[in-house]
Amino acid sequence: MCAMHLVRFCRPYPGLINKEVKVINTWSSHTASTSTVVRNDRSLPSEIKPFSAVPGPKGLYNVPFIGAALHFKPFTKYTANEINDLLTDMRKKYGDIFKIKFGKDYMVYINHPDDAKTILQAHYEVHKRISFDLSETLAEREKVNKGLILLNGKEWADLRKPTQEKMLRPAVVASYVPLIEKVTNDFVDNLKKKKQVDDLLWELNNYTIESVGMLCFNKRLGCLDEGTNSPAEVAVALRNIFDMLQKSFFMPLKMYLYFKTPFYKRFEQEGRKFMEVVSTETAIQNEFLTKLKKEGKLEEYLENEPNFMYSLLADGRLSEDQISSVVSDLFGAGIDSTANTLVFLLAQLALNPDKQAKLYDEIQQVVGNSRHLTKEHLAKMSYLKACLKESHRKIFPISFGVLRILESDLVVGGYQMPKNTVLAINNRSMAMDDRFYYRPTEFLPERWLRETTGDIAKSKEFPFAHKPFGFGPRACIGQRFAENEIFIAATKIVKNFHVSMPSDVKEIKTTLKIFTTPSEKIKMNFLERQ
């Protein structure tokens, strides 16, 4: 799958089918209040309300295809990249459950963790994914294999199973720590020379291309070489791809489905740039492994260095084309998402020097003067993990949260949701709701520590309010690798530098290009520790 497949939401799945099927009943009352009083009323209503009673915009907003466009400029103050502001205002107006017409069907937004739990723990067999029409159109026209994010049903399961067996084993993830550490050491050396960067995201994009490249291709791609002062072409292509995907979601008339519009041609051009890089590097890695095998050196090589691509080839359950699609998924998804996560984590530490100092103390205590990071070091750093979790909460990494397409009728919050309804769990909204989080606007990693009690620990009562990597079989397959990469980078950077930003910067402004990203360039100072 190419990078344009990498998106957490798109046009709702067509057709709301209401058949006679088993209904699972759960209910809770909802209000738009942000009071810290958590509702306790779990009694059932006298009757279940029909789907038509779910609140939401009325009138022209419900015209198929056209209605969605009316929520944005020039009709309102919102752009497509500011949909979270729109959703926040709607939650205040309509409550914890509301619906919006996208395309010809409705998407229902869920803003309470109790309802999120009901949805995520419902019975699913097929695990349908939302239709990604722009990406799917490109894949079909280019005749490339669809990857995990585009596939559904048996095709998806057949691809997912062998891939997750290789990616979710702790021993496999741990084996990459030395390789990622080498990349990170080079990145730290570059920061020592620069001392200040004017665009932190581009710097980290080059870093993540190198580190994710080690996982996908077992090869350094040269993005951190001396004299490299601009973002890699593949990173620029990915940024443009994600920006266009975001825009395509809200297009009232998607003419690119029928012929190659100028918009589609631009998307196609960026997609081909990305696919060319992946195809070239995949072919080089295949040739390298074949050469080692012919020379009788493959076993010796594998004893000294893990190789994800070879593990899939040796498994025998996937074709080379399928393996290429998996590698493409991981490479594309891992670059931009991880770079943005690191930007926001470092920015939060810079804006909260007391938390940065506390993390530095933990690193010194656990790692000390050791020259190398180990899996044992990473396992012991609970405050580091809390910092990442809190950064994800404060600036949620994707547009809103987990999506589900119901496979049977389900009662949620007193409303009957028909089979095939698309439900969007708005984790971003819940993350800033003081019903679920103590002082939600503040960066408080302590709220996630096991030993924390009292008001600050309120978040522990609502585990379904925070799911940055998704939930269940459709959860992010690269989560463990991504977290390891982030932990290694954050540890090395904070161990070597005190990070800070200009004194007039008090908050980080964000926008959406599928993944949450800074809306302005972030300048950061790296003062080397003595």
TrEMBL record:
<keyword id="KW-0560">Oxidoreductase</keyword>
<dbReference type="InterPro" id="IPR036396">
    <property type="entry name" value="Cyt_P450_sf"/>
</dbReference>
<dbReference type="Pfam" id="PF00067">
    <property type="entry name" value="p450"/>
</dbReference>
<keyword id="KW-0479">Metal-binding</keyword>
<dbReference type="InterPro" id="IPR002401">
    <property type="entry name" value="Cyt_P450_E_grp-I"/>
</dbReference>
<dbReference type="GO" id="GO:0005506">
    <property type="term" value="F:iron ion binding"/>
</dbReference>
<keyword id="KW-0503">Monooxygenase</keyword>
<comment type="similarity">
    <text>Belongs to the cytochrome P450 family.</text>
</comment>
<dbReference type="InterPro" id="IPR050479">
    <property type="entry name" value="CYP11_CYP27_families"/>
</dbReference>
<dbReference type="GO" id="GO:0004497">
    <property type="term" value="F:monooxygenase activity"/>
</dbReference>
<feature type="binding site" description="axial binding residue">
    <location>
        <position position="476"/>
    </location>
    <ligand>
        <name>heme</name>
    </ligand>
</feature>
<keyword id="KW-0408">Iron</keyword>
<dbReference type="InterPro" id="IPR017972">
    <property type="entry name" value="Cyt_P450_CS"/>
</dbReference>
<dbReference type="GO" id="GO:0020037">
    <property type="term" value="F:heme binding"/>
</dbReference>
<keyword id="KW-0349">Heme</keyword>
<dbReference type="GO" id="GO:0016705">
    <property type="term" value="F:oxidoreductase activity, acting on paired donors, with incorporation or reduction of molecular oxygen"/>
</dbReference>
<protein>
    <recommendedName>
        <fullName>CYP49A</fullName>
    </recommendedName>
</protein>
<dbReference type="InterPro" id="IPR001128">
    <property type="entry name" value="Cyt_P450"/>
</dbReference>
